[in-house]
UniProtKB/TrEMBL annotation:
GO terms for biological process: transmembrane transport. This is Carbohydrate ABC transporter permease. Pfam families: BPD_transp_1. Keywords: Cell membrane, Membrane, Transmembrane, Transmembrane helix, Transport. The chain crosses the membrane at residues 12-34, 46-66, 78-99, 111-131, 143-163, 184-206, 254-274. It comes from Paenibacillus thalictri. PANTHER family: ABC TRANSPORTER PERMEASE PROTEIN MG189-RELATED-RELATED, POLYGALACTURONAN_RHAMNOGALACTURONAN TRANSPORT SYSTEM PERMEASE PROTEIN YTCP. It is a multi-pass membrane protein. It is found in: Cell membrane.
Amino acid sequence: MKSYDARGRDPLFQIVTNGVLLLSLIIVVFPFLYVVMTSFAPREEILTRGFFLIPHHWTINAYGYLMNSDQFVTSFGNAVYITVLGTFVNMVLTSLMAYGLSKTWLNGRRVLSFMVLFTMLFSGGIIPTYLVVKSMHLINSFWALFLTGAIAPFHLIVLRSFFQNIPVELEESSRIDGCGELRLFWQIILPLSLPAIATFTLFYAVQNWNSYFNAVMYLNDATKWPLQVFLRQMMNEANNSLENMTTEFQYSPAVKMAAIVLTALPLLVVYPFLQKYFNKGMLMGSVKG
């Protein structure tokens, strides 16, 4: 017969669960810790010492090299611009379309919802999408990144379900008081939908911050490349020229690790402030279909 604690939990199950979670934590934290520590190590120690977690000598020369690199600073600025403006475009278009599709009285609502769902199953393809972007003269423009991924179907469907959970009586009373649709949406619907808005804002921000494939395909000017494209180029050049380095820090292992840390740092800083909205936003948005 199994024994349970005061809260009715199985001790063996708790031990196994905690062990699995601890192992998962180690698997996630260990590589990140190695990257951070290596970024503060001198180049000579990395090449001679081999694997280590705590460097014998600490230095920030790798970060200083990146901060003085015009290409890195430009790519970082491009990534910030793409993330901020792209996320704004994503949320405006997604929230407006989700709000419209949440109204049962909207003519053609089922057809539009089917068209959104259809894009989740079948995409236009890389070549047709590229031809459309080219015909709109958006090649080498940031708008090619913003518009090709302006609305994510999954985010739209969940956000639509979230709007459907808002009491209809609240909207009707607002309309009786003379509130228009845009004012109703801005002053009443959005504040009540803050958990879902915050959740999908972060989802879109991560998507835009990690933009790589579309940037490579649509941006020909190297001065417009976002950070992920710069990192890929840096890794390739570092692997090809590791034995022929002429300067101490040019694409050295410490510089590569420092670039990874600086790339992940903005999302790591923002995530804890929005984490509390995740469960509430996703669960409330999945109650209705």
